[in-house]
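TA notes, week 10

Several of you asked for a full example with nothing omitted. So below is the full record: structure tokens for the whole chain, then the designed sequence directly under it. When grading your own attempts, check the secondary structure regions first.
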């Protein structure tokens, strides 16, 4: 379990929880960055939005990168 604060609000999140919540979600088109979840590439903001229910304007791609890398997910970008 990983604890973190995002925009002054505390959250707890596990890798397993992210994988379970994204299991039946189709990936949206990737603009530049992606995160691998369940062997699928997803836009990182889509994943954090689905998992925490936050508005995508309330966090940055850098926020998602830090969170998902700490949880052990592979994060990349298109060239």
């Amino acid at each position: 379990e990983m604890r973190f604060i995002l925009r002054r609000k505390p959250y707890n999140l596990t890798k397993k929880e992210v994988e379970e919540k994204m299991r039946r979600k189709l990936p949206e088109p990737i603009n530049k960055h992606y995160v691998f979840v369940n062997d699928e590439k997803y836009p990182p903001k889509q994943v954090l939005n689905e998992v925490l229910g936050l508005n995508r304007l309330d966090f940055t791609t850098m926020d998602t990168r830090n969170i998902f890398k700490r949880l052990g997910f592979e994060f990349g970008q298109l060239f």
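The chain is about 35% helix and 25% strand. Use that as a sanity check on your answer.
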